[in-house]
């Protein structure tokens, strides 16, 4: 549970100020801090707490799988963007667009959490804890991001508390996103413990770069396309396209996984999370002509980035609610693992990710190979 760290989050002590100076870094012109151990380095932005970078310390190429929309600007000599949205960021309490009434009231895209400055920071070389107040939705957020000695696994613990005296539905997505240069045409495969999927509904007038039809059910990874089935597991062979799908995580599992493997570099990034916390994942597969490729592995409490009105209209989907309720004056707590590892040559598919005593186990059953990662913590 998250509660053990909450008493520590009072404010910046003198020691914390010293550590903040030592661990402070710049990431694409953004203020950030870097956590590290013997295995990995993680960079977290001081606005929104985005996990902007994760690197293996022994990777000579220092290949960061996370989405970096500022990279092309830097390479072109242009100044970085000032807005949020980089790497893995938190969408609370909102995911995607807002209604006209919400916009008029000042409520923006993807909610408030990814735009706030971190407050009440508690920092060590291996962990960052912070709180934030979300004034428009009247919620309190507390989050802790931590490493353990000798592990290449990040544990993220979050608590959201309602200040209101009535129950209400919320939107919460962990906007995990991989991007170029890790993500390229045809070089990445994604696996997940989900099968039932539906293409995101959209009006025909909004088709744009979409190649998948609107609102069609299918079993992962074979989606219906205009020219026949499309295998969504592998990044496409051409750019100039963009699609969304929503998938239900396996109802028979307690812990769910989603992974992305770069076949050229044998570098794999993945997530493990509790189905009770996050029953859905939205895939945002974006391959613009400017090569700023992004694949959102956006696990959360709803299947799509939509308004609450639109998501309510979809309930139930595959027999499962498309929204989560936050009771009056109550808290929701979640936990997930983010991991990064090299895999052996010939390891091409993730059939299973599971926790066993002291280890995280990744299996490619076709190749008969396993990767074992030290993992003393649990979900």
Supply the key terms.
379 residues, mainly beta, Beta-galactosidase, Chain A, domain 5, eight-stranded antiparallel β-sheet, seven-stranded antiparallel β-sheet, 26 strands, globular, disordered N terminus
Can you tell me about this structure?
With 379 residues, the chain is mainly beta. The protein has a single domain, classed as Beta-galactosidase, Chain A, domain 5 (Distorted Sandwich), CATH 2.70.98.10. Helices cover 7% and strands 43% of the residues. The protein has helices spanning 14-23, 71-75, 100-104, 308-314; strands at residues 24-27, 30-36, 40-45, 51-56, 89-92, 119-123, 127-134, 139-146, 153-162, 168-170, 172-179, 188-192, 194-199, 217-219, 222-225, 228-231, 241-249, 255-262, 267-274, 280-287, 294-300, 324-326, 331-342, 352-356, 359-364, 369-374. The strands form six sheets. An eight-stranded antiparallel beta sheet has the order 6-7-8-9-23-19-18-12. The chain starts with 13 loop residues before the first helix and ends in a 5-residue tail after the last strand.
Q: Spatial order of the strands in the main sheet?
A: 6-7-8-9-23-19-18-12
As a percent range, the share of strand residues is: 35-45%
Q: Count every beta strand, where a strand is a DSSP E run of 2 or more residues.
A: 26
Overall tally of domains: 1
Oligomeric assembly: single chain
Q: Summarize the amount of helix as a percent range.
A: under 10%
C-alpha Rg (nearest Å): 20 Å
- SSE order, one letter for each helix or strand: HEEEEHEHEEEEEEEEEEEEEEEEHEEEEE
CATH class: Mainly Beta
| Poorly predicted residue ranges | 1-11
CATH topology: Beta-galactosidase, Chain A, domain 5
CATH architecture: Distorted Sandwich
Distance between the termini: 9 Å
What shape does the CA trace take? globular
Instruction: State the helix count.
Output: 4
Instruction: Quote the average pLDDT.
Output: 93
Please summarize the sheet with the most strands: 8 strands, antiparallel
Global structural class: mainly beta
């Amino acid at each position: 549970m998250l509660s053990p760290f909450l008493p520590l989050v009072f404010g910046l002590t003198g020691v914390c100020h010293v550590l903040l100076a030592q661990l402070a870094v710049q990431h694409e012109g953004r203020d950030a801090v870097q956590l590290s151990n013997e295995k990995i380095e993680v960079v977290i932005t001081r606005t929104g707490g985005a996990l902007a970078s994760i690197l293996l310390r022994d990777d000579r190429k220092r290949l960061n799988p996370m989405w970096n929309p500022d990279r092309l600007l830097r390479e072109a000599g242009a100044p970085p963007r000032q807005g949020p949205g980089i790497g893995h960021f938190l969408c609370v309490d909102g995911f995607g667009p807002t209604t006209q009434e919400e916009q008029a009231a000042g409520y923006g895209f993807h909610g408030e959490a990814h735009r706030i400055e971190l407050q009440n920071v508690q920092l060590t070389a291996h962990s960052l804890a912070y709180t934030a107040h979300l004034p428009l939705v009247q919620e309190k957020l507390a989050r802790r991001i931590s490493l353990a000695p000798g592990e290449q696994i990040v544990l993220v613990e979050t608590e959201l508390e309602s200040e209101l005296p009535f129950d209400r539905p919320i939107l919460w997505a962990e906007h995990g996103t991989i991007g170029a240069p890790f993500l390229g045409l045809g070089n990445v495969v994604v696996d997940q413990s989900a099968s039932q999927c539906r293409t995101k509904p959209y009006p025909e007038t909004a088709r744009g770069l979409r190649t998948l039809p609107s609102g069609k059910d299918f079993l992962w990874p074979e989606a219906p396309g205009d020219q026949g089935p499309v295998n969504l597991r592998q990044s496409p062979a051409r750019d100039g396209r963009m699609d969304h799908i929503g998938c239900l995580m396996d109802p028979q599992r307690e812990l769910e996984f989603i992974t992305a493997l770069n076949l050229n570099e044998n570098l794999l990034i993945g997530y493990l999370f509790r189905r009770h916390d996050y029953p859905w994942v939205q895939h945002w597969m974006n391959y613009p002509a400017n090569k700023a490729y992004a694949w959102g592995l956006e696990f959360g409490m709803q299947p799509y980035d939509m308004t609450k009105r639109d998501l309510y209209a979809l309930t139930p989907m595959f027999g499962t609610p498309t929204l989560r309720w936050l009771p009056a004056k109550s808290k929701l707590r979640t936990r997930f693992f983010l991991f990064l590892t090299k895999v052996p040559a010939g390891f091409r598919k993730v059939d299973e990710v599971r926790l066993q005593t002291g280890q995280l186990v990744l299996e490619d059953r076709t190749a008969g190979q396993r990767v074992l990662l030290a993992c003393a913590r649990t979900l």
